[in-house]
Amino acid sequence: xxxxxxxxxxxxRDSFRDITPEELGARGIRWVFSDIDNTxxxxxxxxxxxxxxxxxxxxxxxxxxxxxxxxxxxxxVEGFNSARPDSARPTYWKSAKPFTKSLRxxxxxxxxxxxxxxxxxxxxxxxxxxxxxxxxxxxxxxxxKDRTSLFWRVKRRIERPYIKKYLRLNxxxxxxxxxxxxxx
Length: 184
Ligand SMILES: [Mg+2]
Description:
- This protein is α/β, with parallel strands linked by helices.
- The chain has one domain (4-183): 3-Layer(aba) Sandwich (Rossmann fold).
- The chain has helices spanning 4-7, 21-27, 50-61, 74-82, 101-110, 124-133, 150-169; strands at residues 11-12, 31-34, 65-68, 117-121, 137-140.
């Protein structure tokens, strides 16, 4: 499959909630560069839902910084970031993932080394591609509430063989989220 190297995540999890500070600490991860939409919240959540706030707080307490690197616009990203429970962080909007310029800038400004950094997202063609191209540990979660337009269905269809191959090679127990259905 073309671009397989860039479109295959290192790990897939049922939800961001399943990613613990303990496991990241054990991997030496200190920085999580995270997508927002459909990774942490739906497009309809202007602010971090409670589960996101709890997760951010737990990461912060463990000394792990979560920085938003989103392709969405400034208002969306700054609005979401403004209500986070942990310390203020810089945000990166219109990041144009799969391009890595914005992600690399976020890393540079944070002082984050590649091997201490992780990319979290819900899309292979943007999030995984950016993370893998930048050489980061890249984790993909199924979308919380995917859009259903033709454009999105086509995108998910392109992702499907890569996801299926990943799942075949990594049969995991925890795949309860309904989001997996977008790749069926
Ligand atoms: Mg997303």
